[in-house]
Structures are given as structure tokens and as C-alpha cells.
Amino acid sequence: MNEEHYLLAELGQGNKEAFSLLFRKYYKDMVLFGGNYLYDKTRCEDIVQTIFAQLWENRETLVIETSLKSFLLRSVRNGCIDELRHRQSIREHESYTEAFGPLGDLDTENYILYSDLQAHLDEALDKLPEAYKQAFVMNRFDGLKYKEIALKLEISERTVEVRIGKAIGLLRHHLKDFLILILVILSLNKL
User: Fold this and answer.
1) Which secondary structure element, helix H or strand E, spans residue 166, and what is its range?
2) Residues 6+ apart with CB under 8 A from 84
3) Which domains does the chain have, with CATH numbers?
4) Which stretches are transmembrane (predicted)?
5) What is the pTM assigned to this prediction?
6) By the 8 A CB rule, do 163 and 132 touch?
7) Tens digits of per-residue pLDDT, 134-167?
8) At what angle are helices 16-34 and 3-12 packed, to 10 degrees?
9) Are 10 and 18 in contact (CB under 8 A)?
10) CA-to-CA distance for 109 and 181, rounded, in angstroms?
């Protein structure tokens, strides 16, 4: 049995001295390896310490199929990638907040209202005959004019106008329960 296997076996038995030996043997290399991903020594040290804490916590059930060093370096890489993803999320949130302001209670309510209304609109659109839905979507969501829709669908502009008119009538019928919700959203947007 080589030293690494011996230390792992001792670690599995809860031998703190074996854990300390593994920590002293790999800690520095792991922090340096983390520096390939993060230019933040303190954060690399945090990641490595977390890995060792998990190693200790899971010592009794830990199964390592490669070498311990490979396992630890892969853990560092994964920890660094998670950190980079976390930082990217923070940057995206900061950009959103700079562009649209902080997300307050009112924004949350607006989001929920819009989300709910959008779900009902999608449901109502699915109930429309395909020809009506197609013309409506092309006009209202894709921004095409009646003439452009007519050319694409090879129908007359009058037919496009009729289909969109009928789609609007059916949507009014399907969404009649949400008229109040629409008015609330419009009034919140004026605040």
C-alpha cells in the first residue's frame, strides 16, 4: 500500500494526523492551481479550505477512483469554475440594476403580474385558429405590416386585416377576466 492509499485509509478511520498530513502535502499546490482560474489568492484559499472541510466531513463514505491529487485538483477546478459563474451572475445582476434600477417590491409585483398575464396570453393564443394566430403574431410580435404579412402568406391585405381583427376579438373574449389585471399593470407603470 503506497503512502497516499495509507493516508486515505487512515482518513476514513477518522485519523486527524492523516488528515493534517494530506492538508500539508497538497494545500499549497491546490491554491497555486486555483490561481490558474482565479487571480484572487484569498478566494483560492477559501475554495481549497472548503474542499478539505468536505474531505473530512465525507471521509467515511468517500470513494476516489483516481489518484487523490487528481481528485483534489479537479475539485479545485470545479470550485473555481463555480466561483467564476457566481461572479458572472453578480455582474449580470449589477448591469441589470444599473440599467433598470433596483428590483423592489413594486418591480416584483409587476414581474408577477406580467408573468401571469403572459401565461394567460400564451394560453389564449393557443386557442386561436392557426391562421388567425399566425397573422396576429406576425403583426403584433414580429412587427410586420399588413402588406408584408399578405406577401409572406400569399393572401390579400384584407384577409390579413380580417384575421387579425378576429384574433383580437377572440383574445378579448379569452382574456376578459384579466382586464382588471391589465388596468392595474398600466396604472403601476405610471407610478
Assistant:
1) helix 157-174
2) 37, 38
3) 3-94 (1.10.1740.10), 108-189 (1.10.10.10)
4) none
5) 0.52
6) yes
7) 998 898 888 889 999 999 999 999 999 999 989 8
8) 120
9) yes
10) 12
